[in-house]
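re the bet — no i am not wrong, look at it urself. input seq straight from the record:
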Amino acid sequence: MKNSQLYKGSLNTIIMKLLEENSKMYGYEITQKVKLITNGELNITEGALYPALHKLEADGLLDVEIEKVDNRMRKYYKLTESGQKETINRLTELENFIKNMQTLVNPKLEF
């Protein structure tokens, strides 16, 4: 289940949640944090991550800061004010989706 289709629809929400918790992160840091949190069960590829980051930025949900680190330029992503509000909305929506899926997968039938 390392890169299941089930996760693809949640990638933006995962990114936004991590940025909410960590204030700003760079791309590789995001991939490693996801891998750490999920004990290696979920691996986000660069091919999936960077298009998602660029889309979130284009939608006005992320800002980018460029900093020089060890003589290299590094892009840090952080939530905008509207990104912070949208994160709350998406997390609520995801929690409701999970509850509904749990109900469907494990229904408690009452007769």
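see?? The chain has five helices and three strands. told u. also Strands lie at 25-26, 62-69, 72-79. so pay up
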